[in-house]
Amino acid sequence: MKDTTQYDNDYENKWCPGCGNFGILNAIKKSLADMEIAPEKILMVSGIGQAAKTPHFLHCNFFHGLHGRALPVATGAKLADHDLTILVNMGDGDCYGEGGNHLLAALRRNINLTLLVHNNMVYGLTKGQASPTSRHGFVTKAQPQGVAGQASNPLTLALSQGAGFVARGYCKEIEHLSQLIRAGISYPGFSLIDILQVCVSFNKENTYTFYKDRVYTLDKEEYKADDLHQALDLTMEWEDKIPIGIIYRKDTRSYTDELAPLQSGPLIKQTYDPKKIQKAISAV
Amino acid sequence: MKDTTQYDNDYENKWCPGCGNFGILNAIKKSLADMEIAPEKILMVSGIGQAAKTPHFLHCNFFHGLHGRALPVATGAKLADHDLTILVNMGDGDCYGEGGNHLLAALRRNINLTLLVHNNMVYGLTKGQASPTSRHGFVTKAQPQGVAGQASNPLTLALSQGAGFVARGYCKEIEHLSQLIRAGISYPGFSLIDILQVCVSFNKENTYTFYKDRVYTLDKEEYKADDLHQALDLTMEWEDKIPIGIIYRKDTRSYTDELAPLQSGPLIKQTYDPKKIQKAISAV
Amino acid sequence: MSIDVTVTIGGEAGQGIQTVGDIIARVCHKAGLYLLAINDFESRIRGGHSFLQIRISDQPVLAPHHKIDLLIALNAETCVRHKKEMAENGLVLLDVENDAEKDDSKENLPEEAREKNVLPIAFSQMAKDAGGKIMTNTVAAGACLALLGAPFSAFEHILKTTFAEKEKILRNNMIAGRSGFDAVKNTAFAKAFDWPSHGSAKGKLLSGSQALAFGALAADCRLAAFYPMSPATGIMIHLAEFMDQLPVLVEQTEDEISAVNMIIGASYAGVRALTATSGGGFSLMTEGLGLAGITETPVVIINSQRPGPATGLPTRTGQGDLLFVIHASQDEFPRFVFAPGSVNQAYDTMIRAFHLSEKYQVPAIILTDQYFNDSLQMTTREMEVPTEIVRFITTDADMSSPSEYKRFAVTASGISPRALPCKGRALVCVTANEHDEAGHMSETIADRNIMVEKRQAKIQGMTEEMKGPDRYHGESDVLVVGWGSSAGAVREAVDQLRSENFNIGALHFSDLWPFPRKKAQDALSGCKHFITVEQNASSQLGRLIRQQTGLSFYSAILKYDGRPFTPNWIAEHTKSVLEEIR
Amino acid sequence: MSIDVTVTIGGEAGQGIQTVGDIIARVCHKAGLYLLAINDFESRIRGGHSFLQIRISDQPVLAPHHKIDLLIALNAETCVRHKKEMAENGLVLLDVENDAEKDDSKENLPEEAREKNVLPIAFSQMAKDAGGKIMTNTVAAGACLALLGAPFSAFEHILKTTFAEKEKILRNNMIAGRSGFDAVKNTAFAKAFDWPSHGSAKGKLLSGSQALAFGALAADCRLAAFYPMSPATGIMIHLAEFMDQLPVLVEQTEDEISAVNMIIGASYAGVRALTATSGGGFSLMTEGLGLAGITETPVVIINSQRPGPATGLPTRTGQGDLLFVIHASQDEFPRFVFAPGSVNQAYDTMIRAFHLSEKYQVPAIILTDQYFNDSLQMTTREMEVPTEIVRFITTDADMSSPSEYKRFAVTASGISPRALPCKGRALVCVTANEHDEAGHMSETIADRNIMVEKRQAKIQGMTEEMKGPDRYHGESDVLVVGWGSSAGAVREAVDQLRSENFNIGALHFSDLWPFPRKKAQDALSGCKHFITVEQNASSQLGRLIRQQTGLSFYSAILKYDGRPFTPNWIAEHTKSVLEEIR
Ligand SMILES: Cc1ncc(C[n+]2csc(CCOP(=O)(O)OP(=O)(O)O)c2C)c(N)n1
Ligand SMILES: Cc1ncc(C[n+]2csc(CCOP(=O)(O)OP(=O)(O)O)c2C)c(N)n1
Ligand code: SF4
Ligand code: SF4
Ligand SMILES: [Mg+2]
Ligand SMILES: [Mg+2]
């Protein structure tokens, strides 16, 4: 096993004991170590929430932005320098609630970012309100009669919008999750990894016990993840069985390959040429 | 035919001659007339754009709000008085661009609104930039090298999020469209009608000619619109053949039926009871 | 004040600080004492350090105290953190993990527990003995109350109401409480006082959030749409508690943009509607605020301030949004801005805000903050529910010709008769574009000028509705001027300074926009100098006063560390300024 | 000025008004004349009424004129609309559908054409005869130029460059142009002038949008993210034209929230980044502005104002956002606000804004408006591209120990050395929460105070960078004070008033925040009274001046109808005030 301690820092962790985020954090470290990406070569971008604190607990570059807005920040960084390796951490409220529109746009762009959604089906940091993935009927202090709407299915959503890399992980399956993250980082387009994350403080339904009997791993040999229909069906499995693994993957080109001004290299690496600019302006 | 002139007003129309919006306007009038909804009994809510001007050209109550924000306004009005019949007009940029997050939320809520998206695959009012439904490669002044991302598929999106009424209309098929609108208004939950709308000024690709050879009507006898898989496939048809009609429909309950405080009637109709309030407060 | 004790309970988030505080507060309240409790916690769910600080007195308490008389430390770190704040004769009760009997072997204790004024008590051990560690809070509450001099019966009474439903739990808690109570039997506490014998509650004990929620109910608010955001969420949670009994719907939205547009839609359709958020969410509502402005739709928006910019300090307090909310959104339109200074005023302000917002058909913004929302305070008057709600709504019956109804008809006051959609033959047409009187988009110069002038015309009436600043010894040479939640702290600071013979008074602004210029000028005209006291870094009220009156503050006492004011802090800083003046 | 002619071309949107205007403007420009053209159009694509108004002179033109000398009416409605604005000897050329030969049978003409000063000409018929109705614009341009006294060769030259590529089209246009030119041969036009014979262009002719776009390029802006919104879209379109030749990416986003966050991400990663929007979009960017504030990320935001509130008048002009952008977003942080008054100043301001934003690591906001963005103006100086761009960026090489790099290290100036992520061993850690020097979330009082003070500390240096107001006869008794795009109109108004012997001058503010208090005070100290001139309803600059200096304006001349200022309008209103003063 590769050394993951290089990603440790001495900043105090602020999560609750037993929180599923610890597993995700470990999986991230593992995948970075396995891929031999040095701490200073990784950029983590996140929104606001418990999930979004993740970058603080890693030795790395990070931009911990606004609630819901991690994807535009990450997109901007990627457009500025498409050589960067960018991982995005968001909560389910962060990504599918406040940030829903940016997820749709990231899917359309198919920009080469790896998005990890710590999906605990609740708003953790704000003390337990329903999130877009909370099930119909889920009771909280803000929803004392239970959630009246239906839960969002983020993976089906991604597939419906032409996503090329759609996966689900589970916070307890660290090794498996770390492989998903590796695959996501290696993927040339936008990769969405929705992670079943247990919140021990505010979600008393989707617990370790809940997942224990339901979660099963897609067999890489058997399931090729290249059939959209089959993938759509898998994303709709939930009640009794919940598949984890790469659910769909197709060949793709990254957004940054499509943009004219980026063809001579990352924007940040191109040189300032006052003469050329003067000429261009004068020609108008 | 029912009298549609009751919905006419003498406010000057501001659309370009030949615009597909005229057909949509006529279809709306037709469906209202057919359903015998008096002008003063209808509430139109819209965003901002050419499509969103529609309510001004009808004799009716209307709230012409902000770009992208028609659905929250309509939702608020419906929650306040769920006896209202509310039609929402939005453009593709309005609804799938700026307002994308509210569409996701409306789908989760399944609130009883009928949403008409005038999908001309371009930003009309702002003079022709690409919209989320513009095809990959679509050239505009803002996208001189063509759109780099992939187009959103709004109908697939809706299906992926559990929508119970998903339809597509075409601005030239006025009678057919008016039936779709009728069905949408009658549907107890959220209904999305995406309408292929020709913009003669800024979209030189998706023209009447383009649609002429492609659009075909789903046969109500043959196609039952109750199979999600089949519906998903239909929403993905585009290049050669484009289906119009009700693509998917399932039984449902409206959001407002699920909310405790609305069970004694619309909020607006309940009475102010100071004694009860005083008692409730004092009990804490 | 013959009684003035401050008790702080500190420990990790998740240790149950709230429970200890709650029991103590309720016992004191029930006994007829006055109290105020502040809540200090980090933006995390477990661990870290948090505390609850209760100030208890036989006189009304308006602000937290800067010194701690009794510290209940649920962990050793609490001792370290609050060491400097301990009063001279202050006492610390420290929960230690070892057995209570072994207290004398101080070497085994954490270093903090070896200090002179620290009394190590094995709260958790006692709780375990009584049936479970979970009752540590009851033990601690018992010890605290015993030290304060409370009779056990008072404690017992509250325990009984708290655990009324489960007999066994009650029994165990009684045992736990008793052992805590007895553990300090022989401990002298300088600030112990004669417990009022037949006291009765002197007012309602409630949080700022509750007062705001109750005010909304009393104002007949029917829809409360929100996106969770500290420190505003509590208001909505308190409202949601009534969803099963009153016609009020609390609706969580996908984001703040939706929340503000939703209440605009609801208000347009005819119900009173509210949203609450903090600065970040308010930022997102800025465009919607303008929509309410141009469509002349009444809505009430609470902005519970916390320090920024951006995410800032989510669970801390501040007053940095005054000039932002006054100027928020493109171009100009009238709005109300209020900033209540007490729970009673907050309750009243909600009722007024809904009333005035509907009367003038403009948005009303209420500025509170984390200190106010999350602190427990006592009412000084009944919170009365209005017997009637005036809705300022027009129906067909009021019109000579409903078919000619014009939503934006020009009037001298700027206020047009407001009808509701689908309620008669009058069509209610509304647009975010500039429009004619009928509500249709218009770009003519004439319509534009008419509509700008119509909207601006409301300002006169609105200004007349505004209260001038509350004056406290307003005839003094020097005035301390504050706004919003600092009202109590400023007043107590003035008391303290006056008791030291300073010629000083205070002004408190609760009505901030439209600025009550004339009344402010009058209130300020008599003083030689005025000093602003605010929780921001640029004296926003001071700048506003100068913008509106041309009058300049002599100095600004500013605090921006995210923690609430104490009277003493204000008094000390004021003294430095007074020395300069002299 | 010996030459001062105003030509207006009016008709429906879609009729090609732009083309007529463009040809005329280019012919005049090429001939060495000065000109300024404004664009007036509705928020629709076809129909309605729109016009382009060109003022031509042999002296620099700073603002549009209030009177029309020559009106090219592409439809009859245009005559009606502009009747009142016609100069005494003004002439109207009206396109009539009937044959030009039948001009004498006036009864067949629309009523408007029967007026004395109206010359009915069958532009469209002549175009049809030349090969197609589409050339109506060329005919009209020909007629207009002939009346102005232009030699046909000058017209010919421009037609040749315009239609260089297609021979047949050129030929037809030449015929069309000629017939228009000849049609007015015998018509006397009072304002005809001696056409400069061997003139050469006196400057670059370009729109405000172009000047801003060019400035961005010259400032090395690499990413321009935006969501379409009038009147800002043009800036981005002009930038997009360079995507195939320069390292600049114009990225259309899903909404304005994304746009502002995207440029923050890009700037954090190391490239200069811009967004442009109008008030509604700026409202949505408010939270992101605070993110730039707390993360100290340089970004440039253009807010092209239009009248509001909300959607307001999308294609009209206004100055209603000054106080909004200064105070936007929760809590406090330093920012720059600029409002250029000419195309040269706009170009320079872009370069300065990027430079200062990066130097101080703060957001910079540029306020322009529809009038400015959509009007054609002439440069008075070369637009020089800086030979070098100073980036204020730190690398490992500059650090003694990169592994200990702290993004928010405290310094006296408040500016911390800024490194870029993934460019060395130094980790760049940034958060929207309050933080310690290393960029990790912190809630301690110490860190909070340090960071607030560090951010505020920048204000001093920033203020020193601010220019005071531009003074024009600044020693006068009365000063007219404006900001932003009104610079030219105010200056011409002053000229007019001074020619009438009023003792009057002007101040123009282009640097608005941090407010150059000292310089403003100096500039205002000599005058007896000052009068603000603004396109809003509350005198926002006047209020800002009072907030910052305590000095009060005597009167405010306010216009909020969405149409640009003319010097005459300002002069007339100023005179009324001057009469009051007297
Ligand atoms: C604009 C804005 N709105 C609301 C908030 C308050 N807020 C902080 S975290 C959070 C939600 C947390 O839920 P989620 O994204 O699921 O993350 P988790 O804490 O569960 O990991 C919210 C609403 C905010 N910081 N900013
Ligand atoms: C917040 C905000 N951003 C941008 C705009 C400018 N705007 C007006 S209409 C429009 C898009 C129009 O496209 P679409 O929604 O597809 O409607 P269409 O005109 O094509 O019917 C935009 C971007 C606005 N009014 N408000
Ligand atoms: S609240 Fe939930 S998600 Fe947040 S740290 Fe605790 S367990 Fe984890
Ligand atoms: S621009 Fe396009 S969508 Fe708008 S009115 Fe014209 S044709 Fe219709
Ligand atoms: Mg969550
Ligand atoms: Mg469109």
Task: Tell me what you see in this structure.
- The complex is a heterotetramer, with 2 copies of chain A (284 residues) and 2 copies of chain C (582 residues).
- Chain A is an alpha/beta fold and 284 residues long.
- Chain A has a single domain, classed as Thiamin diphosphate (ThDP)-binding fold, Pyr/PP domains (Rossmann fold, 3-Layer(aba) Sandwich), CATH 3.40.50.
- Helices cover 30% and strands 16% of the residues of chain A.
- Chain A has 9 helices and 8 strands.
- Chain A has an 8-stranded mixed beta sheet, sandwiched between helices.
- In chain A, helix 1 packs across helix 6, helix 3 crosses helix 4 and helix 5 runs antiparallel to helix 8.
- Chain C has 4 domains: 180 residues, Pyruvate-ferredoxin Oxidoreductase, domain 3, CATH 3.40.920.10; 174 residues, Thiamin diphosphate (ThDP)-binding fold, Pyr/PP domains (Rossmann fold, 3-Layer(aba) Sandwich); 70 residues, no CATH class; 112 residues, 3-Layer(aba) Sandwich (Rossmann fold).
- Chain C is built from 18 helices and 21 strands.
- Chain C has a 7-stranded mixed beta sheet, with helices on both faces.
- In chain C, helix 1 packs parallel to helix 4, helix 5 packs antiparallel against helix 6 and helix 9 packs parallel to helix 10.
- Classes of the chains: A alpha/beta (284), C alpha/beta (582).
- Chains C and D meet through helix 10, helix 11, helix 14 and helix 17 of C and helix 10, helix 11, helix 14 and helix 17 of D.
- The structure holds thiamine diphosphate (TPP) (2 copies), iron/sulfur cluster (2 copies) and magnesium ion (2 copies).
- The site of one magnesium ion has 8 residues of chain A, from helix 3.
- One magnesium ion binds next to helix 3 of chain B.
